[in-house]
Design a protein that fits this description.
Layout: H1 4-7, E1 9-10, H2 21-31, E2 35-39, E3 45-50, H3 51-63, H4 93-103, E4 107-112, E5 115-121, H5 122-139
Antiparallel strand pairs: 1-5, 2-3, 4-5
């Protein structure tokens, strides 16, 4: 059985709740990622900020009245999803994929002993599918070319 540990991204890029949604936006753009775990100083998972959260904050900053705090500069603790599902690094890869599919999650933070050790995303599962398709192509017997009778 393949485990999450074998396919997860170890030591994911993180922020703390003191960072702003603007910090998350810049980091997502520069690293080309869509999910950022929010951790405490001891690497305890505190929540998750997604690209959707950033887009929502941008929308609300467009709608804000003059003089109000710009949501893009508010601390992440205002936007962090605190009730998130996680997976252990020893969990089954297939089970993690099925769970993500059933709940329409884009990622699962990987937590062992209450500490963030990695992240597995839908992009990781696309990479797995591509690898499996390539293996299948390599192992399929070549179709014999038919002789052309003139």
């Amino acid at each position: 059985m393949l485990t999450v540990n074998e396919m997860m991204t170890p030591e994911p890029i993180t922020l703390t709740s003191k960072h702003t949604i603007y910090d998350a936006k810049r980091l997502m753009e520069s690293k080309r990622i869509r999910h950022i775990p929010i951790v405490s100083a001891d690497n305890t998972l505190r929540g998750l900020v997604t690209q959707r959260d950033v887009l929502s904050a941008q929308s609300s900053s467009l709608e804000k009245a003059i003089g109000e705090l710009d949501p893009m500069h508010a601390p992440l603790e205002c936007f962090t999803r605190k009730e998130i599902c996680t997976v252990s690094s020893y969990g089954g890869l297939k089970e993690a994929a099925l769970y993500m599919q059933q709940h329409k999650f884009g990622c699962l933070p990987v937590v062992d002993n209450n500490r963030l050790v990695g992240i597995i995303t839908d992009t990781d599962f696309v990479a797995i599918a591509i690898n499996l398709l390539e293996i299948q192509e390599e192992t399929e017997p070549m179709e014999e070319e038919e002789e052309i009778v003139a």
